[in-house]
Amino acid sequence: MSPAESAIEDPGAPKLPQHRVMADLDRELFESYRDFRSFFYVERDGGLDSATKELLFIAINTAIGNSDGALNHVDTAREAGVTRAQLTEALSLALLLGGAQSWVNVGVKVAQAWIDAE
Questions:
Q1: CA–CA separation, 33 and 10 (whole Å)
Q2: Region 9-28 average pLDDT
Q3: pLDDT tens across 27-84, in order?
Q4: How many CB atoms lie within 10 A of CB 103?
Q5: Which pLDDT score, from 0 to 100, does residue 15 have?
């Protein structure tokens, strides 16, 4: 069974490779991690909407040099309604905070993934 098929059967199944390894190592560890992460995706009255959260995930991951983390949020950001202009602003903030190296190591990959999906 492919990972996509198992995710359809079990919506709580790990989808990313690093999460599958965690689940293979210890399912309870993965489930605890998944439950912890779910807290951050809930929209609350007066809080951040999903699009803003996705932009923050991308910008922060870019600024700290985590390309896998930033790239994991590109499609979700698009699905949440993030625009190209909003992504550009988020990446410019990451460049300001993380320096040119954050653009070279991560920002360009995020920008290319966005362009490729257009």
A1: 16
A2: 86
A3: 999 999 999 988 988 999 999 999 999 999 999 999 999 999 999 999 999 999 999 9
A4: 19
A5: 83
pTM: 0.81
Residue 114 to residues 22, 73, 79, 85, Cα–Cα distance (Å): 28, 11, 12, 11
35-38's contacts with Cβ under 8 Å and 24+ in sequence apart are none
Q: How far is CA 15 from CA 8, 10, 57, 71, 111, in A?
A: 10, 10, 18, 14, 23
Residue appearing with tokens 């590109």 = 74
Q: Token pair 């700290």 is at which residue?
A: 64
Other beta carbons within 10 angstroms of residue 17's beta carbon come to: 10
